[in-house]
Amino acid sequence: MPQRVVIVGGGTAGWMTASYLRAAFGDRIDITLVESKNVSTIGVGEATFSTVRHFFNYLGLHEAEWMPECHATYKLAIRFENWRAKGHTFYHPFERMRAVAGFNLPEWWLHHNPGARFDRDCFVIPSLVEALRSPRQSDGSLFERSLAGSARSGIRNTMDEQDTQFPYAYHFDATLLAGFLAKFAVARGVRHVRDDVTQVVLDERGWISRITTKESGDLEGDLYIDCTGFRGLLINKALDEPFVSYQETLPNDSAVALRVPVDTAKRGLRPCTTATAMEAGWTWTIPLFNRIGTGYVYSSQYCEPEQAEHALRAFVGPAADGLDANHIRMRIGRSRNSWVNNCVAVGLASGFVEPLESTGIFFIQNAIEQLVKHFPSEDWDPRLRDAYNRQVGNVMDGVREFLVLHYYAAARADNDYWRDAKTRPLPDALAERIEQWRVRLPDASSIFPQYHGFEPYSYVVMLLGLGGIPLRRSSALRLLDGTAAMKEFQLVRDQAQSLVDRLPSQHDYLARTYASSRT
Question: Which of 28, 192, 351, 428 is the most interior residue, by most CB within 10 Å?
Answer without folding.
Answer: 351
